[in-house]
Amino acid sequence: MKDKKLLKLIIVIISGLLSFWLIANLIGPGIASIIYSSLLYGKYNTLFISELVLLIITFIILIIRKKLYIFKEKKEKFIPSIKKGMPILVIAIIVLISNFLMLGDKNIDVANLGSLIFLAITVGLAEELLFRGWLQNEITEKFSNNRKEIILSIIASGCIFGLFHSVNVLSGQDIFTTLMQIIQTSAIGILLGSIYFVTKNISSVIFLHSFYDFAVLLGEVNNYKDCITSSNISNTMMISSFLIALIYALIYLIGAYFLLQRSSLNKVTGDEINEVIINKDKENKSKAKKIIIISVILMFLVSSFVSADDIEDYEICFDYETIKFDSGSATCFKDNEFFIGNYKFNLENNKLNIEDIINNTEYKSNINNIYDLIVYEDITSYVVLLNGLEEIYYLKIDDINTINFSEIDKEFIKYDVPEIMEIGYFENNNIRYPLLKSSINDYFIIKDEKIMVLK
């Protein structure tokens, strides 16, 4: 008997070690390669790092405020808690399917997908631990004497979460889009706060938040630069977008309302009272489902009034052509000043400054936030390139004497690009093309006055 047990144990150990070896050697390198490329070259790395910093700060706050108990207390298990976020799941799945259809037959950029997953998880962790784990608990612990105060505390923390997204204006997002985002995130914050209050399961709201963000961002995972909202929006598009934002918010608030209403019932013992509670619970669930279904149908009906042209005008997306050279060399450099004849080009206070050394005259550009400047000579002309991080200004000078320096800004061609860290030129067959190196090591050139991806 003992021999059989020993033999079984040996077989189990050998099988386990063999399986581990096979996984580590066959699958492991592939996974490691994806993680490596995602962390180094993923599109969302800058955002991922900023959210990682926020996560670290949040942990410090939780430690200082003695809120680490949130990881242990759980009224409900993970799956039942997730089900209470059905409005979020339904909308996230609809958005996810829509974004998959938008991608069509394009292969998903694996590095970008990996960095998106890292970002979504980190955002879910950082923002839920901060706004639900700390902020909501902080408020409810001080104002939780009755049901009304608890609900107001959840609404307050949800609205603060929504207003937190107003900082997106500082990164260039337009006010209209930011307003819609505040409305939606406030409502979803109230629902997430309700789920957390009822279940005390922080992992469930982290999952819901991460899954939702992943679904929303997936549509632009292949883009080198995300789409931006046009300043020229039709009235139809503006009204429909606002209505859809309100419908989204309504769905989340309805979910929160019924969830808090169900949780407010006093679950005392007694078969008759329990039966009333169960029936009331079923009735509320049925009402919530009907209202959410109607809201989703309304959302699609409102969307149907928007024409394809309106959608195209609403969002400006950047689709760059790809170019490949058999040979060539890239040169990126940073210098303080350059010369074309008797003209000196340099940056002063992040603006282009041009000085005529012979005539002792200066010309200053009004283009703001320029971080790098290069001037180089090509076969028959000079090229001036200004780097504004996500905006590039390009000027080709065939004859320096024909340039009207007092209106130099009008001479530049402006391009919207991903975040550019270095500029220079790519040389092929004695021709130098302006070269842009992004923050995640994608290379672009300007050819025939068009931005192209260098492969």
Describe this structure in words.
A hairpin with a 3-residue loop joins strand 10 and strand 11. This protein has a six-stranded mixed beta sheet, with no helix packed on it. Helix 5 packs antiparallel against helix 6 and helix 9 packs antiparallel against helix 10. It is α+β, with helices and mostly antiparallel strands and 455 residues long. The chain folds into three domains: 33 residues; 275 residues, no CATH class; 134 residues, Beta Barrel (Lipocalin). It is 54% helix and 18% strand.
Indicate the percent of residues in helices.
40-55%
What value does the average pLDDT take? 84
* Helix vs. strand class: alpha+beta
Please indicate the percent range of residues in DSSP E strands (runs of 2 or more): 15-25%
Q: If you compute it from the alpha carbons, what radius of gyration comes out, rounded to the nearest whole angstrom? A: 28 Å
Strand order of the largest sheet: 3-16-15-14-13-4
How many strands? Answer: 16
The total number of structural domains is 3
Largest sheet: 6 strands, mixed
Q: Give me the number of helical elements.
A: 11
What overall geometry do the principal axes of the alpha carbons give?
globular
- SSE sequence, one letter per element: HHHHHHHHEHHHEEEEEEEEEEEEEEE
The rounded distance between the terminal residues' Cα atoms is 66 Å
Low-confidence stretches: 265-278
